[in-house]
Amino acid sequence: MPTSLSQETQTVAEQSPALQSQDLPEQELRLGGLSIGDEGKTVIREFGQPSQVSSSFYSQLDYPSFIVLMEGGTVIGMTSTSDQYCTPAGVCPGMDFEQVRERYGEPIVSDREDGRFMEYYTANSSCWLKIAVDGELVESVSVVCQP
């Protein structure tokens, strides 16, 4: 008995969970209005002087509950632990993760060296949302990129 296209698609989706999480719109890769690729002067204009700047491989600008990573004068990543710095869809630290599921669907669960994260990917970017949860509560939201 031949399988239908919908049965084949469902089987592929079950075998490859990444396909289910790769439909995050690229505009969601923003926190507090800041985007990957924004210039350092934009960060200073929007957020003021950071409370601390540290440099190693990347420059890190520390703001209260918000960290911005810079390389070559442009934003390459950011992490929020405050409901003041959210995604355009309103995903914020402090909210129940069920609300994130309602906005973005099921995440890819990733075990990384710094913990377990709920992740959402776009189809055409090397950047993604990385969400840390404690129980069902969002602890932090990060936009990270693969170099």
User: Sheet with the most strands?
Assistant: 8 strands, antiparallel
Distance between the termini: 46 Å
Strand content: 35-45%
Q: What spatial form do the alpha-carbon principal axes imply?
A: globular
Helix/strand order, N-terminal first:
HHEEHEEEEHEEEE
The domain count comes to 1
**CATH homologous superfamily placement:** CAP
Total helical elements: 4
Low-confidence segments, given as residue ranges, are 1-20
CATH architecture: 3-Layer(aba) Sandwich
Number of strands: 10
CATH fold naming: Pathogenesis-related Protein p14a
Helix percent reads 10-25%
Q: How do the strands of the widest beta sheet line up side by side?
A: 3-4-5-6-10-9-8-7
SS class: alpha+beta
Mean pLDDT: 86
